[in-house]
Design goal:
14 strands; two-stranded antiparallel ribbon; mainly beta
Length: 372
């Protein structure tokens, strides 16, 4: 998309406000299991769970996310995981619920490795293979640095120029193919298309020249130049998810890396994400299939290099009409954000999920997936 002792380590590195929100939200999810409606229909652990939520990431890379860039957004872009819930009371003899759930035979039982031994102990495992599609939308603040300029090639370092109001907006459509290698290990590959825009204000200081016997002659006053750089391209990558559960609780730790080759000259996006999640299963009466809800956090390392050009006459009418090439390095302003999401397991084969991210980085991931 695990041992719960991994989660506090991650939370300690999050901003204090995000950590408090994460803990309170998970306590709220635990409270859902004791809702009055559940008291009337019986304890959740006694219901017939023949499936488990399968959440496809985000690869939050702009492409993924994910990677967006999950999150490409993997960047995924963005970026993006499945949660097998292993219920020690999952044998048919102990199931008390009258609600019938869909069952489906896997295309092969060779994977996951050790899967048959786990099933013999009464655990319910996912179908081994999955294919699906994600839509990833992401907006985040960015840090722009290392400006270089030049004629025909950006090869001169520039100081004194600053940047403000810098943000990146990304949209990615990705396909995902995954396999459960072990009962608790899922590996997957991502491929898709990304388009986005970088917006920034370039604050140029006053420019003047010092001529012999004449003195200092100003060429232009200090000013701000607004830039908007659009880009499109392909993205690809892969990832690994550790996942597991107990009764109606589950957790996962997902990590992925995506690379995006975009159409701005010599430009690329590299995204690495890590996403811990904790959640619960809900089997409501009157709704076909199973529901899952989770909270979590995403760490994203988003790096982009942009090479473009600008006509000097747009900076000052006193400057010649010459194309000045420039290159800048971009990374995300804040690494962590808070996640919350849900999934509807319509049948054992078909799943729909949606996940949102809040904080300086805002994201929305939706996906439809088929397992076999």
């Amino acid at each position: 998309m695990v041992n719960t002792d991994r989660v506090p380590i991650v939370v300690q590195n999050m901003p204090h406000r995000s950590a408090i929100i994460f803990v309170l939200a998970f306590i709220f999810l635990i409270g859902l299991t004791a809702a009055p409606g559940d008291a009337e229909s019986g304890d959740l652990e006694d219901k017939q769970f023949t499936g488990y939520p399968l959440m496809q990431p985000r690869t939050m890379n702009p492409a993924d996310q994910p990677s967006i860039m999950d999150y490409p957004l993997e960047s995924q872009l963005l970026a993006q995981s499945e949660y097998p819930t292993l219920d020690h009371n999952a044998s048919h003899e102990n199931r008390k619920s009258e609600k019938k759930h869909d069952t489906a035979e896997p295309i092969t039982r060779w994977v996951p490795i050790w899967g048959e031994q786990v099933r013999e102990k009464g655990y319910d495992l996912p179908l081994p293979f999955g294919v699906g599609a994600n839509l990833v939308l992401m907006d985040q603040g960015i840090d722009v640095r290392n400006l270089e300029i030049g004629i025909s090639a950006p090869n001169l370092n520039v100081s004194g120029v600053t940047f403000s109001n810098t943000r990146a907006h990304d949209r990615a459509n990705t396909a995902r193919l995954d396999m459960w290698l072990l009962p608790f290990v899922n590996i997957y590959g991502l491929f898709g298309y990304i388009n986005g825009e970088v917006e920034l204000d370039v604050n140029v200081p006053a420019i003047s020249i010092d001529l012999p016997n004449i003195g200092n002659i100003p060429i232009s006053d200090a000013q701000t130049v607004k830039l908007s750089i659009d880009y499109n391209g392909t993205t690809y990558g892969g990832g690994l998810t550790l996942a597991g559960g107990y009764k109606n609780f589950f957790g996962s730790l997902d990590t992925n890396y995506t690379y995006s080759n975009i159409d701005v000259a010599n430009s690329e996006i590299k995204t690495f994400t890590i996403s811990p999640r904790l959640g619960i299963l809900v089997d409501p009466d009157g709704i076909e299939g199973l529901l899952a809800f989770w909270v979590g956090a995403m760490y994203m390392d988003y790096k982009q290099t942009v090479t473009d050009s600008i006509n000097l006459s747009t900076v000052s009418a006193l400057l010649p009409s010459v194309e000045l090439d420039f290159e800048i390095d971009i990374k995300n302003d804040h690494s962590w954000n808070f996640l919350f999401g849900g999934q509807w397991e319509i049948t054992k084969r078909w799943h729909f999920m949606a996940e949102g991210g809040i904080g300086d980085r805002k994201q929305l991931i939706t996906g439809l997936f088929f397992r076999f």
